[in-house]
Amino acid sequence: MSFLKRLLNPPAPPLTPLWAWITQTARDPVYYTRHQVADSIDGRFDMVALVTSLVLIRLERLDLRREQAALTERFVEDMDGSLRDIGIGDMVIGKHMGRMMGALGGRLGAYREALAEAAPPQALADALARNVYRGEAQDGAAEALADAVRDLSARIGATPVPQLLEGRIP
Q1: Cα separations (Å) of 103 from 45, 95, 108, 118, 169?
Q2: Closest Cα to residue 71, out of 146, 12, 19?
Q3: By the 8 A CB rule, do 143 and 156 touch?
Q4: For residue range 1-16, what is the model confidence (pLDDT) as tens digits?
Q5: Who contacts 130 (Cβ-Cβ below 8 Å, separation ≥6)?
Q6: Which residue ranges make up each domain of the chain?
Q7: Tens digits of per-residue pLDDT, 135-164?
């Protein structure tokens, strides 16, 4: 491909279809209505971080490090763009991105532990109460969301790798 062609039609970043699936899934209205996730910037971030974490856990279990790194880069690019869209300036973008990466890392660890086979059933609801509801879950909301997250995690886990990387999760 010539330089001019690459400049005018740059290739899509890696895992574009998977990232599109993650963001579309995180925006599913059912989370904000039935499961009472806050329909706010923070609530939407929490859901993107949750779905991203579920996919990263699956990639981790498959030892697909390159894909984990590429997905994390997509998360960073998207969050950076989102911050800029809402008016966060260059002077403080790094601080915000550092917090977001820390939040993703913390959630990834919490969800990894909560979804482990040896984890007690309440562990996922507790992790969601802290990280999605930020300690303010209505009665039963975290437990109901935990059931939905387990189902989503099972769907991600059952998806063959090529389909997963193409964002074709049933």
Answers
A1: 10, 12, 8, 24, 25
A2: 19
A3: no
A4: 566 555 565 556 679 9
A5: 110
A6: 17-162
A7: 888 889 999 999 999 999 999 999 999 999
